[in-house]
TrEMBL record:
Transmembrane annotation, as ranges: 29-47, 96-129
InterPro entries according to UniProt: Glcn_transporter (IPR003474)
Alphabetical UniProt keywords: Cell membrane, Membrane, Transmembrane, Transmembrane helix, Transport
Transmembrane found in the keyword field: yes
Cellular compartments annotated: Cell membrane
Highest taxon listed in the record's lineage: Bacteria
Record carries keyword Membrane: yes
Membrane topology term: Multi-pass membrane protein
Family assignment from sequence similarity: Belongs to the GntP permease family.
Annotated organism of origin: Chryseobacterium nepalense
Designated name of the protein: SLC13 family permease
Length: 137
């Protein structure tokens, strides 16, 4: 029975996000509360479980992602991403630009956590693709 409830929860989450287009965070909260009730948990147990799960996730990643996004925004608005794009295009050429991106990701990834490196590099990737008329993927 618990497996069926979990499958129901996954389907419910997919419907809320894709068909109803509800915000992902709200969809996760609604689904977790519904699954908790279906599993026979009391209201106090459900709230404690949601609170514990959300706070541990936010506590581990919240500050890391916040500072990473600030750094990425500063890099994009300060012109660093545009400057790096210009230099990489000039050095590697448009044909070998994917190799330049791999090298940049490697160099940025050494001192940073994956999450922060990803957030820092997203504006950079958008800038490279836009300035060289390349597809985003």
């Amino acid at each position: 029975m618990p497996l069926i409830i979990i499958i129901f929860g996954v389907v419910m989450l997919l419907i809320l996000v894709t068909a109803i287009r509800l915000n992902t965070v709200f969809s996760l909260l609604i689904t977790s509360i519904a699954v908790g009730f279906a599993m026979g948990m009391s209201v106090e147990e459900i709230l404690k479980s949601v609170e514990t799960g959300a706070s541990s996730t936010m506590g581990q990643l919240g500050l890391l992602l916040a500072f990473g996004s600030v750094l990425g925004k500063l890099m994009a608005e300060g012109g660093a991403a545009e400057r790096i794009t210009t230099v990489l295009t000039a050095v590697f050429g448009k044909k070998n630009l994917p190799w330049a991106m791999v090298l940049t990701g490697f160099l940025v990834g050494i001192p940073l956590f994956y999450n922060v490196g990803f957030i820092v590099l997203v504006p950079f990737v958008f800038m490279v693709c836009a300035s060289n008329k390349l597809p985003m993927l």
